Amino acid sequence: MRIVGIDTSSATASVALLEDGQLIAEQCHPGSTAGHAAGLTGFKSNHAEILLPLIESVVRQARISLPEVSGIALSIGPGSFTGLRIGLSTVKGLAYGWGIPIVGVSTLFAQAARVGEFEGAICPFLDARKHQVYAALFRKRHQELGRLTEDFLAPVEGVLDEVRGATGDMPCLFIGDGARRYEKLLMDALGSKARLCAEDSVSSCAAAVARLGMARLRRCEADDLGKLEPVYLRPSEAEARRGNRI
Description:
- This protein has nine helices and twelve strands.
- It has helices at about 35, 45-60, 80-100, 105-115, 155-165, 175-180, 185-190, 205-220, 235-245, and strands at about 1-5, 15-20, 20-30, 70-75, 100-105, 120-125, 130-135, 140, 145, 150-155, 170-175, 195.
- It is globular, with a radius of gyration of 18 Å.
- Helices cover about 35% and strands about 25% of the residues.
- It starts with a strand and ends with a helix.
- Helix 2 crosses helix 3 and helix 4 (about 105-115) crosses helix 8 (about 205-220).
- With about 250 residues, it is an alpha/beta fold.
- The strands form two sheets. Strands 6, 7, 8, 9, 10, 11 and 12 form a seven-stranded mixed sheet that branches. Strands 3-2-1-4-5 form a five-stranded mixed sheet, with helices on both faces.
- It folds into two domains: about 1-110 and about 205-245, 2-Layer Sandwich (Nucleotidyltransferase, domain 5); about 115-200, ATPase, nucleotide binding domain (Nucleotidyltransferase, domain 5), CATH 3.30.420.40.
- The model is unreliable at about 30-45 and about 240-245 (pLDDT under 50).
């Protein structure tokens, strides 16, 4: 089974191809360390321009054509509104055009699934601006990843309260751009209990999306193309402004 995984939920777009669980090809834009090395914490890449070339590059590396893949797995949020819309519209076009089944995967679940050797709580911590983060809590035990909470949006301090209440004495590994941005706050609040995941020590989010998607496709759990929508967790700025005028 060959699965293409795609993530456009953040400034870094990534695409990966797995065959029977093995990573065959992977591309990220910008590179996993390029933005940080240049000090571009708020860097925005143009997913509309680079996503199809990334997909084509990964398929070409694997020496196959897109119709030969068994399915496409896509992160559907929460995350960048624009990135999620571009990712979903692109994937729907490919799926309709080639008759490829697709599955949507929680971005936060995929972030947690990136973590390899670790026992304890995992908290994907994605910057949502305005001192808020997209977050969820998971527990990894004997290589099995289970949910402790659903995905949610909250002020940073609210997430830390959730971590304290849900994890007990377990160490908690934070992963995502919010963990880097709020590193000092995490360490001050949780001390040695808080661990930060080094981004260059784990696979891309797209590779994790592909693995999670493969498990669902093996169970014949493809999503309905017409009904699949991004998960935002909050209204867009335009929707918020409209609501304020009502």
